[in-house]
Write a structure and sequence with these properties.
binds 3-methyl-2-oxobutanoic acid; 12 helices; elongated; TIM Barrel; 8 strands; 13% strand
Length: 289
């Protein structure tokens, strides 16, 4: 399937013009994370507009406490699996910590690898005005970039923790100005994380590009959630902005508990799970032992 072409099954292939059209018409854009092929297939079949192979995989897949340890190799492998499972959704690969901050040239090399080796449709990187140089360099090379401002998890140590942003005059004005700067530098969309809805609304109304929110209120052009949070994959604490749509942890635990019980009570495997054998053949085998 070529870029911008709909496939023969008549399913819409999501492109940047389509996302901009949705913003213009006021139609909400749906976005979720995915980190592997099976989840990407499910999301693509449901018609999710954007799938992000986020560096949140550091926590959801690899068990780190944050996103800082995530490597280019991890993002490359997982983004490739996601894109193979999602031919219709617009797939974005997240740029890991230190893959774009060192220099514009280094950012271009790493973003180029992500596009070429995993087949994603765009990349995402965190930061405001200070990221103009790498963003310009990627945009010049034809690499679509989603910006990410507000709570930026790669800077969690500098921010003093996973805290909401833009709640004072200075912080809010910086976010509004950063959003403008990112748009002018060439981002095709911006993700806003953990900011008051009122600031999300101001940024969304002033932007010509789609604004996607996570914990940024209802006025943004679209919403994203980490799929493991949305499905209740882990027990325990989730951020205030998460709505849980399923309790996968319970479903999986119940299923696996049943398996453990079956094995320990020898009720699995049952006859229907076994291969049959002709009794004459069995007797012949036994007679030779
Ligand atoms: O990596 C990630 O999952 C993110 C979320 C904020 C969507 O960037």
């Amino acid at each position: 399937m070529a870029y911008g072409e709909d496939d023969p099954t008549k399913r819409k292939v999501v492109t940047i013009p389509y996302l901009k059209e949705k913003k213009a018409k006021g139609e909400p854009i749906t976005m979720l994370t995915a980190y592997d092929y099976p989840m990407a297939v499910i999301e693509d079949n449901l018609g999710i507009d954007i799938i992000l192979c986020g560096d949140s995989l550091g926590m959801t897949v690899y068990g780190y406490k944050g996103t800082v340890p995530v490597t280019m190799d991890q993002i490359l492998a997982h983004s490739g699996a996601v894109k193979r499972g999602a031919p219709h959704s617009f797939v974005i690969g997240d740029m890991p910590f230190m893959s774009y901050q060192v220099s514009a040239e280094n950012a271009l090399i790493n973003a180029g690898r992500l596009m070429k080796e995993s087949g994603v449709d765009a990349v995402k990187l965190e930061g405001g005005a200070e990221m103009v140089a790498p963003i310009r360099s990627l945009a010049r090379a034809g690499i679509p970039i989603m910006g990410h401002i507000g709570l930026t998890p790669q800077s969690v140590s500098a921010l003093g923790g996973f805290k909401a942003q833009g709640r004072d005059v200075e912080g809010a004005l910086k976010l509004i100005s950063d959003a403008k700067t990112l748009e002018e530098a060439g981002c095709f969309a911006i993700l806003l994380e953990a900011i008051p809805p009122e600031i999300g609304k101001i940024i969304t109304e002033r932007a010509k590009i789609p604004i996607i929110g996570i914990g940024a209120g209802v006025y943004t052009d679209g919403q994203v959630l980490v799929v493991h949070d949305a499905l209740g994959f882990f027990g325990g604490h989730v951020a205030k902005f998460v709505k849980q749509y399923a309790n996968l942890n319970q479903v999986i635990s119940d299923g696996l508990q049943n398996y453990i019980t079956d094995v320990t009570q020898r009720t699995f495997p049952a006859p229907e799970h076994c291969y049959g054998m002709d009794s004459d053949i069995l007797e012949a085998i036994k007679s030779k032992l």
